[in-house]
Model the fold of this input.
Amino acid sequence: MRVAIVSESFLPQVNGVTNSVCRVLEHLADRGHQATVIAPCRAPGTYAGFPVHATPAFQPPFYRSFRVGLPSRRISTVLTDFKPDIIHLASPTVVGAAGVTAAVQLGVPAVAVFQTDLAGFARQYGVRGMDAMIWSWLRHIHTRAARTLAPSTATMAELVERRIPRLRLWGRGVDLDRFNPAHRSEQLRRELAPDGEVIVGYVGRLSPDKRVHLLTELAGLRGVRLVVVGDGPAAPALRRRLPDAVFCGLRTGEDLSRILASFDVFVHTGANETFCQAVQEALAAGVPVVAAAAGGPLDLVRPGHNGLLYPPESPALMREAVEHLVADPAARSRMSAQTRESVLASTWTALCERLVEHYESVLEGDESPSEAPDRLRPHQSLMS
Done:
């Protein structure tokens, strides 16, 4: 099969879109498929043996480390020359819009992977009143795709409400070797928390869309060492407001594996997560999770089993959930023993095989209606 991936983000940017595209490319290479990638500039020339074609991009003034792709005639040229069987649109917005236009012109079906809550992203950056316009644009893109893959039941329900057609559920995989309790390091724990504190950690972008300012709600918790992993435009302000926290900066590879597995509690502040890869990675590493009861975490966190959920509009209850786990080592231990089991079926191999099945189904002409989203868990059990 010949697969062209048109992505809004790619290396050297590290985020959920980039991660999933890399895993898909590795799987396609392993299975002997042919692929090409179109992504914003500064990307490497190849990945997994496949060519990567750069498109123009710009850096938003409020987020200099992020690059936004721009539409380009090069997208149509690359796709025409490659002659794909199917076009994979990774979180289509701007570059993806050009990709789906080219797909229609070439008569090639496109599978769109919905991955970013753009309306929620805009609100977190103070841009109000744009929801209708954003959803109109996204609907314009996704209605021209042969299939849209939603990462969670909450996101699928939202897409149904927004009249996005031909939906299927496709989650995200996790590397069970890289994220594993075996990487827990007592030496690292002594370095991070020399007085034996309970380590409460966050991993992710330090940016307004992740609501990282809510981490300040955890300041002053007795017996707790707050550890923050990541970088972004909110980092300087957060460092000033949390002088006692440990800021590790951006970490990857073995460093990230050791740090994450060495947490006692993982806390996530975002409320616009279509999936939330960081939560799944923490669970795979054996760490109980405290997350907002919204979006992807609703599928991942089972309150009282592998973590706790808090109402996204109540940061005080986030602090209360963390306090509950800090004060109850038996509950942490019990949950820790169950976190990894909850994600064992979510390997990237299984998820990518399912993705190829979606490709094949679309190529066979299956245009059946959307799957019905599963019922979401009731919020009354958040702290059970």
Q: What stands out?
A: The domain at 181-343 is CATH 3.40.50.2000 (Rossmann fold). The chain has two domains: 2-173+347-363, 181-343. Confidence is low (pLDDT under 50) at residues 376-381.
